[in-house]
Specification:
By secondary structure, this protein is of the alpha/beta class. The chain has one domain: Rossmann fold. The protein has five helices and five strands, in the order βαβααβαββα. The protein has helices at about 20-30, 45, 50-55, 70-80, 115-125; strands spanning about 10-15, 35-40, 55-60, 85-90, 105-110. Strands 2-1-3-4-5 form a five-stranded parallel beta sheet, sandwiched between helices. It comes from Pseudomonas synxantha.
């Protein structure tokens, strides 16, 4: 029996990170894999667009100025968006608990991310929605 899956390029992955080099590297990797990618330099930049409504998977830094990735995740849930989320962080030992009132992220990966792990988690995030 054939599994019902969407074509990757029909799915949008949003990258939210205040580090331009991280955004650029992730965007290049994901585009080369066939995904549609949108990048944002901050959580507020993402929230102030129609990004949340168009995003199938979110890759977000945790520690960013203004609003952290965890605060972004909480805000999205409060707005009714349940986007599968992967967190990335340069400080994996300092990741705070999300609390029981939030949907759990798919993963929390250290920067730099191991490519195979990142792509595997993105695939898991995208296809758990189907």
């Amino acid at each position: 029996m054939k599994q019902d899956t969407q074509i990757p390029n029909s799915m949008t992955i949003a990258i939210v990170d205040d580090d331009d080099s991280v955004r650029t590297a992730l965007e290049s990797l994901l585009r080369s894999t066939g995904y549609k990618v949108k990048t944002y330099c901050s959580a507020l930049a993402f929230l102030n667009t129609n990004g949340p409504a168009q995003t199938h998977c979110l890759v977000s830094d945790i520690q960013m100025p203004g609003m952290s990735g965890l605060e972004l995740h909480k805000q999205l849930v409060a707005m009714g968006f349940h986007i599968p989320t992967l967190f990335i962080t340069a400080y994996p030992e300092a990741v705070p608990s999300l609390g029981t009132d939030m949907s759990a992220p798919i993963a929390c990966l250290p920067k730099p991310c191991e490519t195979k792990k990142l792509l595997s988690f993105i695939e898991t995030a995208l296809f758990q929605q189907n």
